[in-house]
Design a protein that fits this description.
Elements (H helix, E strand, L loop, with lengths): L5 E6 L17 H17 L4 E6 L14 E2 L2 E2 L22 E5 L10 H7 L4 E7 L1 H14 L3 E10 L3 H13 L5 E3 L1 H8 L7 E2 L13 H6 L2
Parallel strand pairs: 1-2, 1-6, 2-5, 6-7, 7-8
Antiparallel strand pairs: 3-4, 8-9
């Protein structure tokens, strides 16, 4: 893996997007925390810049989606200053990491993420995060539209159910031009310049999955 011009984007690893008591708990909390920690540690050892995104809304809801549900005018999640909106302590950023706060699902909309990547002359993104089919997936799509090459760490992502996660990863794999999909343990090997395994994009729409085949197809990448 060529790490020159590579950066990491860790999408919305916030407590309320992971923990059972949060607004958006995920099905795979324990494995996600372990795999994301493995991936981030390997990236730090390799000297890659790490960018965290954080959904962060004004308590009065001035910057929330117009039709987003609220309680007494207050957004029901990702409220600025709420401890549950902070990055999960198991995946806490270091002082050297970059934080991008956002008000929409994709981290590219209305933020300085693209300016930051351009300033660092980045062309390859290692991406992991939650929720797979929402904030993570929309950020990946926006990165693809901007001609970044993407490596998805598939077992360092999570959402409400396993099926939602698997179909989201397969949807991305179908159109991940120039990209790859890898597990956290294999990413660590790659960054340590050891032999590793990863799926590489070759053909558009290569995974026409059904409910009967989705798991086998997911396991193949």
């Amino acid at each position: 893996m060529d790490i020159s011009r590579t950066a990491v984007i860790a999408v919305d690893f916030q407590r309320e997007c992971i923990e059972a008591e949060g607004a958006w708990p995920i099905y795979n909390k324990d494995s996600l925390l372990e795999n994301a920690a493995t991936a981030l540690a390997a990236c730090r050892r390799a000297g890659l810049p790490i960018i965290y995104t954080q959904h962060w809304l004004d308590p009065r809801g001035h910057d929330a989606l117009r039709f987003e549900p609220r309680r007494n005018g207050r957004p029901m999640h990702s409220v600025a200053g709420d401890p549950m909106a902070e990055i999960h302590p198991a995946l806490a950023p270091t002082p050297d990491d970059i934080m991008i706060r956002k008000q929409r699902w994709t981290a590219f909309y209305g933020t300085n993420l693209e300016l930051t990547l351009n300033q660092m002359d980045i062309e390859h993104l290692v991406m992991l995060g939650v929720w797979t089919e929402a904030c993570f997936e929309t950020t990946v799509w926006d990165a693809i539209w901007r001609d970044y090459r993407i490596t998805i760490v598939k077992d360092a992502c999570g959402t409400a159910t396993e099926l939602m996660h698997m179909t989201s990863i397969l949807d991305l794999a179908n159109w991940l031009y120039g990209g790859s999909i890898i597990k956290a343990s294999e990413l660590a090997k790659a960054l340590a310049k050891k032999p590793y395994r990863a799926w590489q994009f070759e053909t558009p729409s290569a995974f026409p999955y059904t409910l009967e085949t989705v798991r086998d197809m997911y396991d193949s990448i």
